[in-house]
Amino acid sequence: MAAWGERLAGVRGVLLDISGVLYDGGEGGGAPIAGSVEALARLKRSQLKVRFCTNESQKSRGDLVGMLRRLGFDISEGEVTAPAPATCLILKERGLRPHLLIHDGVRSEFDQIDTSNPNCVVIADAGEGFSYQNMNKAFQVLMELENPVLLSLGKGRYYKETSGLMLDVGPYMKALEYACGIEAEVVGKPSPEFFKSALREMGLEAHQAIMIGDDIMGDVSGAQRCGMRALQVRTGKFRSGDTSGQQGPGPGKDSRRPPGPRRGSQPSCVCCDVQPSAVR
Amino acid sequence: MAAWGERLAGVRGVLLDISGVLYDGGEGGGAPIAGSVEALARLKRSQLKVRFCTNESQKSRGDLVGMLRRLGFDISEGEVTAPAPATCLILKERGLRPHLLIHDGVRSEFDQIDTSNPNCVVIADAGEGFSYQNMNKAFQVLMELENPVLLSLGKGRYYKETSGLMLDVGPYMKALEYACGIEAEVVGKPSPEFFKSALREMGLEAHQAIMIGDDIMGDVSGAQRCGMRALQVRTGKFRSGDTSGQQGPGPGKDSRRPPGPRRGSQPSCVCCDVQPSAVR
């Protein structure tokens, strides 16, 4: 196994996931993960470019950044690549008028979007908004369309809050896909377009950047498929069965990852179990 | 195309789906589909054995039969094959203690089942019970199990009520499958075991029976895979794009069936567009 200096050769920038890497959400705004405030401060003092690449879709970028700043993180709105603004660009480019199945906390991002007479559905991490009534309405809108379009802000399976694991948008995206016999378009990680837009904003090529996240699919595999390097931290949703070779997920494809005890907050390389002290 | 008499040669029994074939559910108990009360009465007067084979999982068999009798149908509880009683048998046989994500209307079917310290999840058409909180609880139970078992009472995509199309249990089953990286065990149509138990109760072999339903997958393909003949009615969830060759559904496999105008209440063979007057 190559030394860390060698494995990180040529890296000029770091993309950081937020939930499960910097903090765990939850009641009262959540809590920073031990050491993450200091790790980010150290990264910012280094020569490396830093950008935040998140699938957060319950909060607007402004609210997310405000909350993180209150927790002590050195972060500004312009440093964040998030799926809601990316979705608005797509809607405008394609003349799509969405029926929105989203959390009230992110609704302000869609203030400039025409939602009259919907010709598509946009689904995000709606949390408690994923009621049967709201899901059924989205389903009915899709079934009435000649060419149903479903945009999903990420396809994460779950995330970790301080109170435990929580269903993310992915399962609900799958539910609508199955109900309507369609395939959603994912805006956010692991979409290559999403990683590329983050790289563009950093002014870097894929081989010059490393993604750090807690999701073996959305963060690690997604970034690697774009030609980036990637590190999985052992915080957030990390489970001991995660392996870097794992693809997916999809019913019938994704092997069950055995539940295991959550490790501490020490990040390490998912490939080799080495603590990435070169980064942190 | 063979004549109807020839195509139905040797048929000694009829299995009837209920929702979308006999009636459409909805506010106030729903409404009979035009002609169905009379068609059932005629079948009962014939030499054919009649059994009802339903995936209804919001109501107990007793409540379902009571409601149908009030609508004018000649039906008794002992004539109905339904997934909740079949699930209870499986739970007892395998020593499974379920966490139940089900509608209150069917809860009485599980009165004799031990639900302490759950080692599996049972999901049925919970309707409004499919809240985010309830889905998340089922997800968390599964994620805590070493060998997670998910039993689903059917896997229908949707059904038709008088107010419109409604999400069935299938999409929520898919959501939990995706979230947990597991595959559910389906109890109900199109499970071969379920059709076989209905045939056993009729004392018939598969080649002696015909299934009549509105679901091209759950009813028609499912029965055909068991060696039975099958007819699709053009009521209930029938949509003009349904074809008998269609398999599925599953994300990425099930081609989008184009929405089309709902036809009238005339049942016909899905293969050849002939009105099955020999049956009705």
Automatic annotation (TrEMBL), chains A, B:
It catalyses: diphosphate + H2O = 2 phosphate + H(+). Residues 236-269 are annotated as: Disordered. It is found in: Cytoplasm; Nucleus. The keyword Hydrolase applies. It comes from the Eukaryota. Keywords: Cytoplasm, Hydrolase, Magnesium, Metal-binding, Nucleus. Phosphatase that hydrolyzes imidodiphosphate, 3-phosphohistidine and 6-phospholysine. Has broad substrate specificity and can also hydrolyze inorganic diphosphate, but with lower efficiency. This is Phospholysine phosphohistidine inorganic pyrophosphate phosphatase. It comes from Balaenoptera acutorostrata. The gene is LHPP.
